[in-house]
Amino acid sequence: MAEPRTNESMEKIVSLCKRRGFIFQSSEIYGGLNGFWDYGPLGAELKRNVKDLWWRSMTQDRGDVAGLEATIIMHPKVWEASGHTSTFSDPMVDCLLTKKRFRADQIEPQSGVVFHFCDAVEAAAAISSANESISGLPDGEQKEVRLGGVQKAVQLLRNALSFPRDQVIDPMELVGAFVRKYGRQGRSLERNFSVLVSSEAETARAERVAQEFYEKQGLIAPIPRLAKKEQVKDSTGFNSENGPGKGAELTPPRQFNLMFKTYVGPVEDPDSVAYLRPETAQAIFAQFKTILEVSRQKVPFGICQIGKAFRNEINPRNFTFRSREFEQMELEFFIRPDEVVEAIYGKVASAAEVLNIEQRTANDEQRTSDAQPSTLNRQPQPNWGWEAWHKYWVEQRIRWYENIGLPRSTLVEYWQKPEELAHYARATVDILFKFPFSKRDDQGELAGEELEGIAARSDFDLSQHQRFSGKSMGVFDEELKVAWAKLDEAIRKNLWQRYHDARLKYLTKSGVPGEQAAREAKADADGLAKGQYIPHVIEPSAGVDRLILALICHAYSEDQAPDEKGKLESRVVMRFHPRVAPIKVAIFPLLKNRPELVRKAEEVRELLRPHMTVFYDEVGAIGRRYRRQDEAGTPFGVTIDFDTLGEKGPELKDTVTLRDRDSMKQERVRIGDLLPLLLEKVR
Ligand code: GAP
C-alpha cells in the first residue's frame, strides 16, 4: 500500500514544482536534458535563502571560518592528487537489449529462470532448410510433422513481410518474397543472450525479449535457439527496471569515471584536458595555505565554499536528487592532530567527556537522531581532538537543519560502518532525510537518503596536495613549539612515535617507496619539535539541491480551507519555515478598484520591501489570492481593508489583518508594528 502513495506524492510534488515555477527541466523546449534542472522564480528564491542561511551560519555568525569562491575548472593535477582521476568512478552495466546504462550497485536482485539462447536464425532460413529436408519425403504424416515445426517461422515471416493473416500462401513463396525484399537468403547469427523471467510460465516472454534482441542485431524475423535453462536466486545480472527491457541480460560491470571532461584553449589534445569540478572541496585544500595567510586564522579554523559541482552520473534519478549538475555547500574545518593537542594540553578531551553524550563508535547501529536529544551546548574547546570536533559538527549541522524547518523526526543520523568508510576516513556520519522515495526498513519506516556527509578525513587531502604539488601544506604552531620543548622525554617519544607511525602509514599506502617513506615520516615527526604539522580536517559536505528537494517534500501538504462563502475546499499548502520561504509576505488590497485601498497597500509594500521578499496581488477574490500564496509557501498575508482606512472607527485606522498561512488565523496589527513583528519571524 505504501509504495503507490509514495509515488503519488512525488508525482504531485514534481507537478506542483513545475506549475508554480519552483523547478523544471533544463532546455525543456527541446525535450529536456536528463540530470539537469532549472529553478524558476520561487525555486531560485528558496535556493538563495538556503545558501544565504548556510553562509551566514558558517562564516558571519562565527569567527573561525573564512569563505572562498574558487573556479569550477582547476589544474588537472588537483584531480590526480585528490584521487578523482583514478578512482572517482561508479561500476556501470548496460542492458544488452535497450542499451540503457545503470549503476551496477543499483540493480535489484532478482530470482527466477534464466533462458540462455546461443544463436538465432532468420525465419526465411529456417523455412528453406526445413523445405530442403522434406522435399524428398512423400506426402504424409512425417512431412506434416516437419512442416508443423516451421509453422512458427511461417507466422513470423508473414508478419515481417506484412502478409495478411488469412491469405493462403506457400511457405517457399514467402521465402521468395523475403529474398526479393531484402536481397539475401535468410541468415543466422551466433551470439549468446540470456533473459531472466520469474518462472517457466513466462517462456513466451523470454522468447519475445530474445527475438527483439536478435532483431536489434540486424536479423529479420529471428528465431532464437535455446541452449539451456537455469534457476537463479538474487541475480544482479539482469535488467530489473520495469519496462520492455525487464529481465534482459546486462553487461559485466565496468568502471566509469564520473568527471566531465573538457579542453582548455583552442587545441583539443591530451595536454589541454581539464575537468569540471566534481566537488567544491578540493579548491579549499589547494588554496589552504593562501587562505591561512590572508585570513590571519590559526588552526583550528575552517574554509567554506558554495558552488556548482558536476558529475556525469550514470543514472540520474528521483527528480533533482541525483543530478549531473548540482550545488554543494562544503566546509573544511582544519584541526590539530591529536598528538599536537596532547603535547600542548597534556590530554585530548574525549568526545564523550566534552560533549556529555554517550560515546559512540562507527560500529554503532543506525538510528534516528530523534532518539538522542541534543546535549551539546558548549563552545569548542582548545583541547578537543578529532572525535570531539567531528561530533560537534554533526550536532551543529543537525541543529541547522532543524532551524530551517526540517524536524529531527525527518532526519536520520547514520554512522558509516567500518567497511563503508573511505580508506582515509576515520569516521563518517551521513545525515539522511526521509524522502517519499526512500527505501523502507524492516519495520516499514522510510530509511532516508543522504543530504550531507560529515567526514573526519585525517590529513589525507592536504598530504596529497603536498605530495603532488611539491608545496608544503604544513603549518607552524608556536604553542606546539613551546609545549614540545617542555615535554617529559617519555611523553615526547611516545607522541613522536605515534605521529611518525601515522605519517608512515599514509605515505606507504599512497605508494611512496619504502626508504623514501621512512625518511619522510621521520622528517614529519621531527617537525613537531619545530612546531610544524599537517592539519587534519573535518568535512561537513552538503548538497543544496537535495536540501531544496527535502524542504519541498517536507513542506508539501494538503488540507481543507473555507472559501469566501465558508464552504470547505481542499488546498495545497507549502509549509516552508518562514526563514526559507521564497516569498515572506503577500500584500492584498481588498479591492483593486478602490484607489485609497490600493494606495495604502502600496505604502505597506514599500515599507516591507527593503527588508524581505514581498508579493503584491490585487487580482481575484481574496480567498483565491490566499490559495495562490499558500501554494507558493508564503507564510504571511497582509490585507488592507476598509478598517485600515478608518472607515469603521478611528481605533482601527492604519491597522491591517495579518493572516498566518498554517493556522489561517487572522489578527489585527498596526502598520507601524508590522515590520518588527515580521522580521522576528522570518530571520
Ligand atoms: N567533498 C565530499 C563530497 O563531495 P559527496 O558525498 O560525494 O561528498 C556531498 O557529496 C553531497 O553533495 C551529498 O551529500 C549530496 O547532498 C550532494 N551530491 C552528491 N552528488 C550529487 C548529485 N549527483 N546530485 C545532487 N546532489 C549530489
Task: Jot down its keywords.
single chain, 683 residues, alpha+beta, eight-stranded mixed beta sheet, 22 helices, 27 strands
Please give the structural blueprint:
Elements: H1 2-19, E1 23-25, E2 37-39, H2 41-60, E3 65-67, H3 76-82, H4 84-87, E4 89-94, E5 101-103, E6 110-122, H5 123-135, H6 141-149, H7 151-160, H8 171-182, E7 188-197, H9 203-216, E8 222-235, E9 254-257, E10 261-263, E11 273-275, H10 281-286, H11 288-295, E12 301-310, E13 325-335, H12 338-345, H13 351-355, E14 367-368, H14 386-403, E15 411-415, E16 427-433, E17 449-456, H15 460-469, E18 475-476, H16 478-486, H17 489-509, H18 514-527, E19 532-533, E20 536-543, H19 544-555, E21 556-562, E22 568-574, E23 585-589, H20 595-608, E24 614-616, H21 622-632, E25 636-640, E26 655-660, E27 666-670, H22 671-682
Parallel strand pairs: 3-12, 23-24, 23-25
Antiparallel strand pairs: 1-2, 4-5, 4-9, 6-7, 6-8, 10-11, 12-13, 13-20, 14-15, 15-16, 16-17, 17-20, 18-19, 21-22, 25-26, 26-27
Bound molecules: glycyl-adenosine-5'-phosphate.
Ions, cofactors and other bound molecules: glycyl-adenosine-5'-phosphate
Cα-to-Cα separation, first versus last residue: 40 Å
Instruction: Sketch the major β-sheet.
Output: 8 strands, mixed
The helix content, as a percent range, equals 25-40%
Read across the widest sheet, the strand sequence of neighbours is 3-12-13-20-17-16-15-14
Shape label: flat
Radius of gyration: 34 Å
- Overall SS class: alpha+beta
Per DSSP, what share of the residues sits in E-state strands of 2 or more residues? 15-25%
How many β-strands, per DSSP? Answer: 27
Low-confidence stretches: 357-376
**Secondary structure tally, helices:** 22
The mean pLDDT is 92
